[in-house]
Design a protein that fits this description.
It contains 16 helices and two strands. With about 450 residues, it is mainly α. The longest helix is centred in the last third of the chain and has 35 residues. It is globular and about 60 Å long.
Length: about 450
């Protein structure tokens, strides 16, 4: 009994253990403002994707021009999906993002409709699939990219040993875990700093591209659409790669309960962050195009490294490597935030062991959820195959995005009289749903 009492002094643990249908008493602090929301969305998206996906996008698109169109379309579709989640976040005031929205969308009891319990099953499937596969794969991809770039300056003349990459990745993940266990406020402040730094890194990359064009290296733009692929299949694959790089627009919704003034914070953050992301992505790609040929881009899975070398030699490789490392560290922080909030909310509702819904009394952080997610991320990180992780992650993620959008369409009917502080057009919702169907094929 002494041990139990001591634990309860440190952690706020659930009191209702019989069923998961009653919300337990533990609360996370409200630390997310508009600035933090923008930082979490932009900081989570701008990371490993923009430095990996240009290879896949231009390989399938066939030309600079078609690749740029694909990036713009991917950013537009991601923005539409994010705005749909903003409506859901304002309507369903729960953290957990897809988990909460799928559960609410497919579970309703209205006298004019059948009682549908499908939501319990679908949200349960999402919880376990996402907790043990999707989210750990996401942070594994990000941290492996970080490990690859952060140690590259020490191996300029040879390939980086795989073991060194993995050790660096685990060490960085450990740093993020300690920070997220200690303080949510510290985590969000660091996220703001990292987002500013990664935007400065993007400015540096764009400046190198502008310098190349200013010195007369503009031959790649003279035949911008030469070699374009118009095959629907190939363009779909190009869009697939671009949308993977844009993933992360749902990060803030995982912390809905921690946001100040949800009615305004969610959609305003999205309106600021997504145009910022899309513009940054387009400018970075134009910089890559100014320096590298199509063949050079398709031949490299880490496009930023040959870009840096051609622009500034070994000094460019070092500077670009450190810039990408900072960028991916911010994305890793966002992925850790999202994954732990999913575990916390699902455990609070009884869909995972209730142990993981505990909140530290002093720090107001879900330490058990953070440690579980970090452990699963390390398991996914050990094999070290980024390509395989990306393919598995993308296919699974969009299945549940589609269920969220379908749930939004259902609630437009079943709960049409409920107040909606923010609402997107039906065209945007249907487009997002059709995009999810395309991505699952």
């Amino acid at each position: 009994m002494d041990n139990v009492d001591e634990n309860e002094k440190v952690f706020l643990l659930p009191k209702d253990t019989a069923k998961g249908d009653k919300q337990s008493k533990e609360k996370l602090g409200k630390e997310l403002s508009l600035v933090h929301g923008v930082a979490f969305i932009a900081g989570s998206i701008i990371g490993s994707g923009i430095f990996i996906s240009p290879n896949g996008v231009i390989e399938q698109a066939g030309s600079y021009g078609m690749a740029l169109v694909t990036w713009a379309l991917g950013g537009l579709l991601a923005t539409g999906g994010g705005l749909c989640l903003c409506e859901l976040g304002n309507f369903v005031r729960k953290s957990g993002c897809e988990y909460a929205y799928i559960h609410e969308g497919f579970s309703f009891n209205n006298r004019n409709y059948f009682v549908i319990v499908l939501g319990d099953l679908l949200s349960f499937l999402f919880t376990w699939t996402s907790t043990f596969c999707i989210k750990p794969m996401s942070i594994a991809i990000i941290m492996l990219t970080f490990g690859n770039y952060v140690v590259k300056p020490f191996f300029l003349d040879c390939d980086v040993p795989t073991e060194i990459i993995k050790i660096s990745s685990v060490a960085a993940l450990g740093f993020l875990v300690i920070m997220n266990c200690y303080s949510v406020k510290l985590s969000v402040r660091v996220m703001v700093v990292l987002t500013v730094l990664k935007l400065l890194a993007a400015v540096f990359i764009v400046a190198l591209g502008i310098r190349e064009v200013a010195t007369g290296c503009n031959q790649h733009f003279q035949h911008f659409f030469d070699g374009s692929n118009y095959s629907p299949f190939k363009l779909s694959l190009a869009l697939y790669a671009a949308l993977w790089a844009c993933d992360g627009w749902n990060t803030l919704n995982y912390g809905t309960e921690e946001a100040h003034n949800v009615n305004k914070t969610l959609h305003r953050s999205m309106y600021i962050a997504m145009p910022l992301v899309v513009i940054t992505y387009l400018l970075i790609n134009l910089s890559f195009f100014a320096v590298l040929s199509v063949n050079e881009i398709t031949a490299s899975t880490a496009v930023a490294l040959p870009f840096g070398f051609k622009a500034l030699g070994n000094a460019g490789v070092v500077m670009i490597s450190l810039s990408v490392a900072v960028s991916t560290l911010g994305s890793g922080n966002g992925a850790l935030f999202a994954g732990t909030r999913l575990i916390f909310v699902a455990a609070r509702d009884g869909q995972l062991p209730l142990l993981f819904s505990g909140v530290h009394r002093q720090h107001k952080t879900p330490i058990q959820a953070v440690l579980l997610f970090a452990f699963l991320g390390i398991i996914m990180l050990i094999p070290g195959d980024i390509g395989q992780l990306i393919n598995s992650f993308n296919a699974a993620t969009w299945i549940f995005y589609g269920l969220c959008f379908a749930g939004l369409l259902i609630m437009r009917i079943t709960r049409r009289r409920d107040p909606r502080p923010y609402k997107v057009s039906m065209y945007t919702t249907l487009t997002a749903y059709q995009t999810s169907r395309l991505m699952k094929m």
